[in-house]
Amino acid sequence: MARFLQIWSTWVLLFLVFTYFPAAQGVEKVKVEVYTESLCPDCADYIINYLNPFFNNGLIDIVELRIIPYGNARIHLDGSLTCQHGEDECYLNIIQTCAIRLWPKVTDWFPFIYCLEKLPRAIAAQDWKSCVEPSHLDLAPLVECSASPLGEKLELEFAAETNRLQPPHKYVPWVLVNGEPLFENYEDVARYVCNDYHGDKPAVCSRLLFLESSRSMQSSVDACYKTESSLNFA
User: Is residue 21 part of a domain?
Assistant: First the structure.
């Protein structure tokens, strides 16, 4: 009898796990990678209006989200950086990179980056610390990372990753879903996520999957384009 109860308990446990925890069945999250740069108004708009809703509509539960803040910067032969929107952008890119690396959990670092992108561009580099406390991060590690060689080292790693993109990015935000660039359809990222996820989908997907791409007929997008002056040379 004891043996029967043990087997029965095991089967019940397995049933509950496979019923209520889809990840246990091998359902992989959808990988979303967003290549951005600070002080780019179109990147800010994307983070605020397209990525932030993931945390309210349930999509973040089925997404592995990464943000790579480097964008259209340039690496000089001596290893120094020049950024499309000047020194303030380089500084804020490193601040974001440090936050992502110091707090790898997306629910930790995303509120901080979201707050940064909502700051007025004219004062963002001076007022970034105002985003630390409401995001529940610690100021000291961020200051230490951004002011030390570690911050630049981490940013150069993101630079190398950005420069390895195939095809190369043409602008930012540059968005990949499961390794495939969305090109001009980047605003439809939520629909692509719903389409690529093979488990139980959040309710928002039932509406999104019926929508046609809103960008497919357009020849240009709202983005910060890579120009000759912002190409990377190593």
Answer: no
**What pLDDT, in 10s, does the model give residues 44-101?**
999 999 999 999 999 999 999 999 999 999 998 887 899 999 999 999 999 999 999 9
- Please report, for the domain that includes residue 143, its CATH number: 3.40.30.10
Note down the domain range covering 124.
27-227
- Is residue 14 a part of any domain in this protein? no
Token pair for 67: 């943000």
Does residue 147 sit within a domain? yes
Residue 223: which of 149, 182, 148, 171 has the closest Cα? 171
CA angle 208, 209, 212 (to 5 degrees): 85
Total domains in the fold of the chain: 1
- 51: which 2 tokens? 């990525």
How many residues are given for the chain? 234
**What is the tens place of the pLDDT at every residue in 119-146?**
999 999 999 999 999 999 999 999 999 9
Total-model pTM: 0.84
Torsion on CA atoms 141, 144, 146, 147, rounded to nearest 10: 170
